[in-house]
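Narrative of accomplishments. A recurring question from our advisory board has been how the design workflow behaves on a single, concrete structure rather than in aggregate. To address it, we present the structure tokens for one chain from the evaluation set, followed by the sequence designed for it. No filtering or post-editing was applied between the two.
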């Protein structure tokens, strides 16, 4: 579907019954985030806050379901996009034997050319209004969580250009607002915009970069142009056609223009206009354009903390400063925003779109044997991947793991499970059964190392650590536990729990259902506490049938499998925390330490972040105002489930 504005998308969402308008005045400081978190995890509708205390309404959770992300991308099913990519690839790669075939190719090429972005030699709707006094504080910018370092622009579409090649990058990087004219620019080292920044730093003084005053425009004041050779121009859009937000989040190969993908998705080329105070081109139909620069010689500034998509705070660190030179917007502008935090959140569906769209290019270019892939929401995109593939020979699953760990943003994946083509990878119970029955830890586990997401707090070295690969494809099936074994195992674990006061609880249900996995919540009381428990388990003949032992935080219930998976995937650094240890029968058992790591017992040097919850004051405020929002029956705060799992007040545990 072609949208000419974010307002068009709002109207479609409302017609589809996917949007609720909130007419009472709300605060962008914590209140909107708390309301949205309740809605996402329950009735799950897009929300339009019409009175934000500013001149602009705010749209949030617009992409937060399969139906809404499909509406945004103009499809009935996300797999349609991958199928279309597959069809196009086949058209262009099959032999063109006849003249008719070659003539048909001309029409195909014409269609492809219609997706290419086009520069306009005029102003765009995004420049209808020029803010006379540059002031970011006039926008309803959210503070989402209590220990955030400030307010953050959470859905920015950031434009940069490589200083030598001229190649554009469009990415999504959160922006902490420091004051009315400066923000942080959260560029991770793996991102293309960070490479552009580095390129500007390396060529400083050799290539002048011009910052214009806007030509005929005299009403847009300059923040102050930096000295020639120090300025990296940056422009940020908010809103416009919803596809812009998606492509900014998509993991495209370096040097492939995101607006080509946008043109393909919307079947209409993106029309671009030149910014008023720098030479960057942005979509003409955006709602807001924030223009400016980064001074590459300026000291980095502390940015954060921020309640991030992992469900934990990402702690404060140093990043470049973005200086705003001009803000323009359309007359009917809507401010788009999102919140991230303990899953599920809206970003899960942006990630799901990427999973479905980019599966086909991976299959076409690298792994034709790849059938399907699932990145579970509990794995927050990069922590867990379940891969379905044809197994053609022994060792084939390990080849697939290594190939995917070398494919673009899949390099950041931490745990990968490969299963047969007969397994329903969207049924996590089936996947769990297959892992417990098909996997021999002695032969089917691979531990590797490589890049990790910069937000991975478990890594001792930021952005680098271990990876865990599990081959759960068909082999000689190993039996599940029988009933007599179940009883004996439970009795011995109860005895073990009585012996070690550090064992808080364990999951009996999994054992009674025949699974070869033991999940224990433990409170570490010494450096070797977990090792002692492991050795006692492994030396016990009755516990020989166990294949996996997982240790989790004492405040987490071992029966809450969603929390166990989410917390474990975040807390585990496989090179350090996943160990294959022989039991009394000389069989290997995979022992996973998914507890929080600390300086005292684990010699972990970094601070460990807290999980993200709302505070009591905000919860009480929203409780009190709930009936005025027009959201139907009362919904309690999702944070209440997790407040008992917080060790202390603040963004970090230690």
């Amino acid at each position: 579907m072609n949208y000419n504005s974010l307002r068009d998308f709002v109207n479609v969402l409302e017609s589809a019954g996917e949007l609720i308008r909130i007419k009472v005045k709300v605060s962008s400081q914590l209140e909107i985030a708390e309301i949205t978190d309740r809605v996402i995890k329950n009735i799950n509708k897009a929300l339009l806050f019409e009175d934000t205390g500013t001149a602009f309404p705010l749209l949030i959770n617009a992409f937060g379901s399969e139906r809404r992300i499909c509406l945004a991308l103009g499809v009935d099913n996300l797999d349609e996009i991958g199928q279309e990519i597959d069809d196009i690839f086949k058209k262009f790669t099959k032999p063109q034997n006849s003249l008719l075939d070659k003539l048909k190719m001309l029409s195909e090429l014409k269609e492809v050319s219609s997706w290419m972005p086009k520069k306009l030699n005029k102003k765009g709707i995004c420049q209808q209004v020029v803010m006379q006094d540059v002031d970011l504080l006039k926008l309803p910018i959210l503070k989402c969580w209590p220990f955030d370092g400030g307010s953050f622009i959470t859905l920015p579409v950031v434009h940069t250009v490589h200083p030598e090649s001229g190649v554009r990058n469009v990415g999504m990087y959160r922006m902490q607002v420091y004051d009315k004219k400066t923000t942080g620019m959260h560029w991770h080292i793996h991102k293309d915009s960070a490479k552009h920044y580095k390129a500007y730093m390396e060529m400083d003084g050799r290539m002048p970069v011009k910052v214009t005053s806007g030509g005929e425009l005299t009403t847009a004041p300059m923040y102050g142009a930096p000295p020639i050779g120090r300025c990296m121009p940056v422009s940020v859009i908010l809103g416009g056609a919803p596809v812009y937000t998606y492509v900014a989040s998509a993991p495209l190969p370096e040097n492939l223009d995101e607006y080509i993908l946008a043109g393909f998705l919307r079947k209409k080329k993106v029309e671009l206009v030149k910014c008023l105070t720098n030479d960057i081109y942005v979509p003409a139909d955006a709602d807001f354009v924030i223009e400016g620069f980064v001074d590459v010689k300026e000291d980095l500034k502390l940015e954060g903390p921020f309640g991030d998509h992992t469900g934990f705070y990402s702690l404060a660190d140093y990043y470049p400063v973005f200086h705003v030179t001009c803000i323009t917007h359309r007359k009917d502008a809507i401010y788009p925003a999102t919140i991230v935090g303990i899953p599920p959140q809206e970003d899960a569906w942006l990630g799901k779109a990427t999973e479905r769209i980019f599966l086909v290019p991976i299959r076409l270019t690298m792994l034709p044997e790849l059938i399907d892939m699932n990145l579970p929401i509990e794995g927050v995109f990069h922590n867990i991947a379940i891969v379905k593939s044809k197994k053609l020979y022994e060792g084939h699953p390990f080849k697939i793991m290594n190939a995917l760990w070398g494919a673009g943003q899949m390099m950041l994946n931490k745990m990968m499970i490969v299963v047969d083509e007969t397994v329903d990878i969207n049924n996590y119970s089936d996947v769990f059964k297959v892992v417990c029955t098909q996997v021999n830890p002695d032969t089917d586990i691979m531990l590797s190392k490589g890049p990790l997401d910069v937000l991975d707090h478990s890594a001792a070295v930021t952005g680098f650590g271990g990876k865990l690969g599990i081959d759960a494809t068909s082999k000689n099936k190993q039996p599940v536990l029988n009933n007599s074994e179940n009883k004996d195992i439970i009795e011995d674990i109860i005895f073990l729990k009585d012996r070690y006061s550090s064992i808080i609880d364990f999951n009996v249900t999994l054992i009674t259902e025949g699974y070869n996995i033991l999940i224990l919540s433990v409170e570490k009381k010494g450096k070797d506490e977990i090792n002692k428990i492991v050795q006692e388990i492994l030396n016990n003949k009755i516990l020989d049938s166990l294949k996996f032992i997982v240790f989790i935080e004492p405040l987490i219930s071992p029966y809450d499998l969603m929390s166990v998976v989410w917390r474990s995937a975040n807390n585990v650094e496989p090179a350090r925390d996943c160990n294959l240890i022989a039991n009394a029968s000389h069989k290997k058992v995979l022992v996973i330490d998914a507890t929080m790591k600390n300086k005292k017992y684990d010699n972990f040097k970094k601070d460990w972040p807290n999980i993200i919850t709302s505070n009591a004051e905000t919860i009480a405020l929203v409780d009190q105002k709930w009936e005025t929002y027009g959201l139907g029956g009362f919904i309690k705060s999702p944070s209440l489930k997790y407040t008992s799992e917080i060790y202390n007040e603040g963004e970090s545990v230690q």
